[in-house]
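Exam revision sheet. Question 4 asks you to relate a sequence to its structure. Input first:
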Amino acid sequence: MNMKYGMYLCLFVLFSVAFVPAQNSNATDDQPNIQPGSSRSVSSSKNKLPSVAQQPSQDSSSGQGANPQPNENAGQVTGTGQAEGAIQGESSSRDSQVDFHNQPIPKTPANSAAVEYPFDPHKAAKDVEVGNFYFSRKNYRAALDRFQEALRYKPNDAEGTYELARTLEKMDLLTQAYQSYNKYLEILPEGPSAKDSREAIKRLEPRLNTSYPEPEKQAVHDIEAGEILLSRNNFAAAQEYFEHALRVSPENPMVYLRLAQSLQGLQRLDEARLYYRKYIELQPDGKYVAEAKRAVNDINLFLGK
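Answer key, structure tokens:
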């Protein structure tokens, strides 16, 4: 009996000695071989989906594939001083050169009425109030912007329409002023400002019926369009209109004045001063001479010369 138990014990010991090293050997084979100091990460390539970077890309010209993510660096200045995506080959001395020849006719300004504004009489009333404040300070351009905004929130506001007409007349934008006075009479034929509107229409009609050569008509249109853009501080677009007006009507003093103002808004002060002086030269007793001289003095003070 004792011999039988002894034989079983020997067989168990032999089995254990043979089996355990085999297990340890298999476990060792499954472990990755990582050398000391290695920073490589360990991952199994079996049954693993490729990452986004590994996904096959679609032809970008076909417009298919995953939605592109916004590029956070788009438009930033690179080490060469060029903005990515910017037009290459522009001269850095562009601001010091003035050439009005062979330039395209500027496009019509974007119509703010195309944007949907909520009907808000309260906002319109506040805009009219602020516009009247600017008008009383003879800041007609700021007043124009406010009255236009009022009419976006309440298109048929009689007070805003009348005040817009007065502002346009003060700015010598006679065609638009004439239209606004008529618009007021359509809204309130017997309103509190109806009498003044009719008188203004009679006052403007002789000036509007003046026969201008075709280039002068185009210049008037360009000046009016540029004025609207100036009231919105869109100096670059306004500059395009005034430059076109200057090409078709090079002796029009107002073109020089408005071009100077748009260039001043763009901080192109040397050019702005040049056109202010040209306006003063062409119209030494003009309506805006004091304003032009003040602008020249401000530029001289700023530039130190």
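Marking note for examiners. The first helix runs from residue 2 to 30.
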